[in-house]
Amino acid sequence: MSTHSSHFLENASPGGTSSNLIYTLVALLVGLPVAWALFILSQPKIYQAAATLRIPSGSPTVVQASGGMVAVPALIGPEEVGTILAAIHGSTVLDPVAARLSGADLVQFMAPYSKAGTPVMAPVDLLRKNLSVSMRRGTFVIEVKYNHPDPQMAARVANLIAEEYLKFADQAAASSAGTSAPPAIRPTLLDRATPPSDAPVNPVRWLRR
Q1: Domain residues of the chain, as ranges?
Q2: Other C-beta atoms within 10 Å of 49: how many?
Q3: pTM confidence score
Q4: Cα–Cα–Cα angle for 56, 141, 96, nearest 5°?
Q5: What's the average model confidence in pLDDT over 17-37?
Q6: Are 47 and 196 contacting, i.e. CB atoms less than 8 angstroms apart?
């Protein structure tokens, strides 16, 4: 067998193939985390601001107990909470918020989405997509949270949504006054949102816009 043939067989031996495979796997194991870290660092930061609303607990109900008459605080049920959360997410609240974002405010609001390189959604759809509303466990407090790459805009939008919902609740209460309908729940503003100082990064959620 010639020297060239022996050299070819030596390079094609199973040991050489295994070494190449190991090197490839090591490169992947090291390279993928580094690439993912660089990807995360390159994504825009998302700031979350929250305004809070307090739901009135209502007048207590006096009931008979073993020790006599006691006052039991009136509590709103899951159905009433669900109605409030749905209203804040609804067009009745978000359409006026979108209308109030005009001029320089609208430019500032839309700028980060225009830079993302994807088709830009309508402002009201962006409002709905980046809004989260929840009841704080064990309390009568509703948190209106809004996410935006600009911390000032995140706080402004959260406050606008809270303001427009309070207007809606006041109108609903006025409409039900003097009728047989149950009295409407009228929350009050507990805390206005302030620009957040920290910025949780969630690049996957951002890319799914």
Answers
A1: 3-41, 47-207
A2: 23
A3: 0.69
A4: 90
A5: 70
A6: yes
